[in-house]
Specification:
heterodimer; A: about 190 residues; mainly alpha; 7 helices; B: about 200 residues
Chain lengths: ~190, ~200
């Protein structure tokens, strides 16, 4: 039963994610953290960091991680299968339509609209994850602000935004800095 | 005899699709990066499909739901070797991430309970949120460039829905898509009257 539930969750997430990769992040957060409560936002932030370090599509990484956590190895397979079903079906349909008409104007309109939804969703997720990281104690107050996290976050953002180095190196750099800060200065 | 040769060629194609998508998936991290490598491998090296076909596949992959890497490989596999080709391509793309993630998750508990690793992960979390924020800003500027007030109405409506209503994103997607299609239909009709 759990297996079906995990699979269905990821079929749902997959069907709603247009534009690939990062657009799935808030959808997974919504389904897995808010609706199903299979993990916390702190664990989800861990998952995002691990995602970036492991190869392959983010959604498959998410599915495997969540599936493993909820129902072990079978859960991982069920969740991954869930991620593959919608693409397989939609791609075949789209391929048939595309060969016949070459261009489908409605698709462009829907994609544009999905982008708007994606922006709203991603903004929400950034706020939730941000609160989680900057205020690990759980209360949003200046006193409980994790200043070191804020510094790392700003630095990482600048490096990523300006495209200075590969995102994987940015993540590893953040980890190294945090560990060094902890060992040397006790942050 | 000829038929058997055809079968053998098909099997070889399917095998090539599988082994190449497997290798691409275990090295590339994002969907578009994967498509870049796929072009080099399937179009230039093996000449299994034309450049136009690949760009068709890319466009379709980007406009259907789901991970772009999976969509693209599924379409490319299908164009090259039919149903079994797409199955081989999906398997090839999926096996490496599942394998690595299963390993990571198996040791996740032990890894995170180690103090040093936990601190390291805490640092990486800050970086991961920065990456997501960067993606959000990319979307923001994309929508800004269109210079359409209607799009911002959609964004605001979606925000209100997410923050105030405790409902599934599924209905939001349907509502937003419907609103955009209706708006488009009205625009088309107006345009038609003018001309």
């Amino acid at each position: 039963m759990m297996l079906l539930k995990v699979m269905f969750s990821f079929i749902k997430v997959c069907m709603l994610s247009f534009g690939g990769g990062y657009s799935a992040i808030p959808l997974v957060a919504n389904e897995i953290v808010d609706v199903q409560k299979w993990m916390t936002y702190a664990e989800y932030a861990d998952l995002l960091a691990l995602d970036e370090l492991t190869p392959g599509p983010i959604m498959i990484n998410c599915a495997t991680f969540v599936g493993m956590k909820v129902a072990g190895l079978p859960g991982a397979f069920a969740a991954t299968l869930g991620c593959c079903i919608p693409p397989a079906i939609f791609c075949f349909i789209l391929d048939l339509v595309y060969r016949k008409y070459r261009e489908v104007p409605a698709v462009a309109v829907i994609l544009q609209a999905m982008k708007c939804m994606s922006l709203a969703l991603v903004t929400t997720t950034v706020i939730q994850l941000g609160i989680n990281i900057l205020f690990p104690a759980g209360t949003v107050a200046l006193a409980s602000l994790d200043i070191f996290s804020l510094v790392l976050f700003v630095l990482a953002f600048i490096f990523v935004r300006k495209d200075i180095v590969n995102p994987i190196l940015v993540l590893l750099g953040c980890g190294v800095l945090r560990l060094a800060g902890n060992l040397l200065f006790g942050f | 005899m000829e038929k058997q040769n055809g079968k053998k060629a098909d099997l070889r194609k399917i095998w090539l699709i599988f082994i190449n998508t497997l290798m691409i998936s275990s090295t590339a991290n994002s969907g578009y990066a994967m498509i870049g490598v796929m072009e080099r491998v399937f179009v230039k090296k093996h000449e299994m499909l034309s450049k136009e076909e690949l760009s068709d596949c890319t466009a379709m992959a980007a406009s259907s739901p789901g991970p772009i890497g999976i969509n693209a490989s599924c379409l490319i596999g299908y164009r090259v070797a039919g149903f079994w080709g797409s199955l081989a391509a999906i398997l090839g793309v999926v096996i490496p991430p599942v394998f690595f993630m299963v390993l990571v998750t198996m040791f996740y508990g032990a890894i995170v309970s180690n103090g040093y690793v936990a601190t390291f992960m805490k640092g990486m979390q800050a970086g991961a949120v920065a990456l997501v924020l960067n993606f959000a800003i990319g979307l923001f500027t994309d929508i800004l460039k269109k210079k359409q007030v209607f799009l911002w109405v959609l964004v605001a409506a979606a925000l209100i829905y997410i923050w105030c209503l405790d409902l599934s994103v599924f209905w939001l997607a349907l509502l937003i898509a419907a609103a955009a299609l209706i708006k488009n239909a009205i625009m088309v009709r107006k345009g038609g009257e003018k001309s």
